[in-house]
Amino acid sequence: MLLLRHMVSYRQKYTHRLIEQAQVLPNARMTNMSMVTNQIQVESLGHGTYVAQLQLDMAGPWEEISIEAHADGFEPIAKNLFVQVE
């Protein structure tokens, strides 16, 4: 089992202003079998910074970890992570 914590800052595309009150949606899936994580937690640290925590229960390639952030009136962002759990 691996507890993955990832910090993301959500900024407006052109002004780089940090965006608060965003909806942050993490998701994780293994690529070699039908396995997803249901243990997901998101915490706002303030000033447009968020921490996404995901519990990866099985060893293997978790290559479809995505974190998306949305806020009304702003362009959404997405970040993809690739993790090999030993």
Secondary-structure blueprint of this entry?
Blueprint: E1 2-9, E2 23-27, E3 40-46, E4 49-56, E5 60-70, E6 77-85
Antiparallel strand pairs: 1-4, 2-5, 3-4, 5-6
Task: Give a structural overview.
By secondary structure, the protein is mainly β. 0% of the residues lie in helices and 56% in strands. It has no helices and 6 strands. It has strands spanning 2-9, 23-27, 40-46, 49-56, 60-70, 77-85. The strands form 2 sheets. Strands 1-4-3 form a 3-stranded antiparallel beta sheet, with no helix packed on it. The chain starts with a strand and ends with a strand.
Stretches where pLDDT falls below 50 for ≥5 residues?
none
Seen as an oligomer or otherwise, the chain set is: single chain
**Gyration radius, rounded:** 14 Å
The helix/strand order is EEEEEE
**What topology, given as strand order, has the largest sheet?**
1-4-3
Summarize the biggest pleated sheet.
3 strands, antiparallel
Shape: elongated
Strand fraction equals over 45%
Helix content: under 10%
Ends distance: 9 Å
**What is the mean pLDDT?**
89
How many H/I helical runs? 0
> What structural class do you assign from the helix and strand content?
mainly beta
The total count of strands amounts to 6
